[in-house]
Design brief:
Length: 275
C-alpha cells in the first residue's frame, strides 16, 4: 500500500497543474458553484495547484492536520474575500477530490487487480485529508464572518457597553439613564415653568430615548413613554394657553423612535448570538 500511495502522490505532484486546470474548467461553469464563474481563471488554477501539491507535505508531516492549515486558511481567506459562499467553497473542494481520482483513473494508475485494491485502501487516507481541509475551511470562514460582524457592529457595541462586565455594565447604564432623565425633568421645568415657552429643547430627549432602546431593546420604550408623559404633563400644568398639538406629536415620536430602535436592536442581538 505504501508503494501505491507513493505512486499516487508522485502522479498528483507531477501533474498538479494539469489536474488543477481541469478542476478550474469544471468549477467555473458548474451549476453548484455560480460564484466562481466570474473569478480570475489564474487565481482559481493557483488554488488548485497549491492544493494538489499539498499532498506530499501532508503525507510526510508528523501532524497532517496542522500541515493542512497552510492551504486551508489561505483558501478560505482568498475566496471569502471574493464573496464566495461557504457551501460553494466546500463543493469546490469536493470537485477537487473528484478530479484527482478521475485523473488517476484516466492515466491508468490503477492497472493490476492488486493496485485497484490498494487504491480503495488509499482512498480512505485521501478522504481524511479532504476532511481536514473541509473542516478547517469551515472553521476559518466562521472566524472571518465573526470578525466582520464584530467590526461592523463595533460602534453599536461600544454604545451598548459590551466591554463592561456583568453588574458593572448594568449599574453604569442605570446611572447614566437616571442622569439623563433628571436632566430632562430640569430642562422641561425650566423652559415650561420659568420661561413659559415651548421652544424645541426636546430634541435633546432623543439621546436617552435611543440609548434606552439600544441598551434594553423593546423594554427601553418605557423611557420614551416617560419622556412623552413628562412633556404632556408639564404642558398641561405650565403652558395652558399654548397649542397642545406640537407636544403631542413630539411625545408620539419619542415612542415611535424608541420602539423602532428597540425592535432593531433585538434583531441585531439575535444575529450576533447566531454568529
Amino acid at each position: 500500500m505504501q508503494a501505491y500511495a507513493s505512486k499516487l502522490i508522485d502522479l498528483i505532484e507531477s501533474k498538479a497543474e494539469g489536474i488543477a486546470k481541469q478542476w478550474t474548467a469544471d468549477v467555473m461553469k458548474h451549476d453548484r458553484t455560480p460564484s466562481y464563474h466570474s473569478l480570475s481563471k489564474d487565481m482559481v488554477i493557483e488554488q488548485g495547484i497549491k492544493f494538489y501539491k499539498l499532498f506530499r507535505r501532508m503525507s510526510l508531516a508528523e501532524s497532517p492536520y496542522e500541515e493542512a492549515k497552510t492551504f486551508s486558511w489561505k483558501y478560505a481567506e482568498d475566496f471569502y474575500r471574493e464573496k464566495i459562499p461557504l457551501h460553494e467553497a466546500l463543493y469546490a473542494l469536493i470537485l477537487m477530490r473528484r478530479h484527482l481520482w478521475l485523473y488517476a483513473e484516466f492515466q491508468g494508475t490503477f492497472v493490476t487487480a492488486l493496485e485497484k485494491q490498494q487504491a480503495v485502501e488509499s482512498l480512505n487516507r485521501t478522504i481524511l485529508m479532504f476532511d481536514y481541509v473541509s473542516y478547517q475551511v469551515t472553521e476559518k470562514y466562521q472566524e472571518l464572518i465573526i470578525g466582520d460582524v464584530e467590526k461592523k457592529l463595533g460602534a453599536i457595541k461600544t454604545l451598548m457597553m459590551k466591554g463592561l462586565i456583568g453588574g458593572k455594565k448594568s449599574i453604569y447604564k442605570i446611572g447614566l439613564m437616571a442622569i439623563f432623565l433628571l436632566g430632562a425633568c430640569i430642562l422641561t421645568y425650566y423652559y415650561h415653568a420659568t420661561l413659559g415657552t415651548g421652544v424645541i429643547f426636546t430634541h435633546l430627549f432623543y439621546i436617552p430615548t435611543i440609548l434606552a432602546s439600544i441598551w434594553w431593546g423593546k423594554k427601553g420604550v418605557s423611557v420614551a413613554v416617560f419622556l412623552g408623559a413628562l412633556i404632556l404633563t408639564s404642558h398641561t400644568l405650565f403652558l395652558k394657553g399654548m397649542p397642545f398639538i406640537d407636544d403631542i406629536i413630539r411625545a408620539f415620536m419619542f415612542v415611535v423612535i424608541g420602539g423602532v430602535v428597540g425592535w432593531l436592536m433585538e434583531g441585531i442581538n439575535k444575529v450576533e448570538e447566531l454568529y
